[in-house]
Design a protein that fits this description.
two-stranded antiparallel ribbon; 5 helices; 7 strands; 23% helix
């Protein structure tokens, strides 16, 4: 594939501050901004032309290996989040082990019906939320069509997917959370 800037063949090398550097390849990695400020901002990618990262304080986000090495780790207040640091439990607490107890006696077989059951398509129930039309359109474009999907994202990942939607900032996110609490 040709370089957008000069039209030559891509080599995996980028010129930064008049120095040619090789971009590392590999799986995407998680990065977090732990600096001052409360609002979201964007950072341009060095590895992928035209790509921008939406950064929110203390919210981990995924970045390419090249950008982690040559962009974020060189900026102040950014650090890489190691896999062992990631919260594995969406609830935040350890789930207690539940012992399995065998009950003596006859175990009944489940009843299986031969007739087919039609499962209805999930309907869009965002209309029951008290949110602005702009927010509803942005949520639908991002694939959120049910209140339960929004609630799950908020509870499981502190609204990570919702916050990544272009056009949904902190005030619109607060509007969504308030609407879900009142629904």
């Amino acid at each position: 594939m040709a370089c957008r800037g000069c039209g030559s063949k891509a080599t995996g090398k980028v010129v930064v501050n008049n120095r040619t550097i090789t971009m590392p390849v590999g799986p995407d990695r998680m990065v977090v901004y732990e600096g001052p400020g409360t609002g979201a901002f964007t950072v341009n990618s060095l590895a992928v032309p035209g790509k921008k990262y939406r950064v929110m304080p203390n919210e981990p986000f995924e970045a390419t290996a090249g950008d982690v090495e040559h962009r974020f780790l060189r900026l102040k207040n950014f650090r890489e989040v190691k896999p062992q640091e990631m919260d594995q439990s969406p609830i935040g607490d350890e789930v207690p082990a539940i012992p399995i107890v065998e009950v003596p006696g006859k175990v009944e077989e489940p009843v299986v019906s031969s007739e087919s059951v039609e499962v209805p398509e999930p309907e869009n129930d965002l209309d029951r939320l008290d949110i602005t039309p702009h927010v509803r359109v942005k949520l639908e474009e991002a694939g959120f069509t049910r209140v339960s999907d929004l609630r799950l994202d908020i509870l499981a990942s502190n609204g990570f997917k919702i916050k990544q939607i272009k056009g949904i900032g902190p005030s619109f996110y607060d509007e969504i959370v308030t609407a879900i609490l009142n629904a």
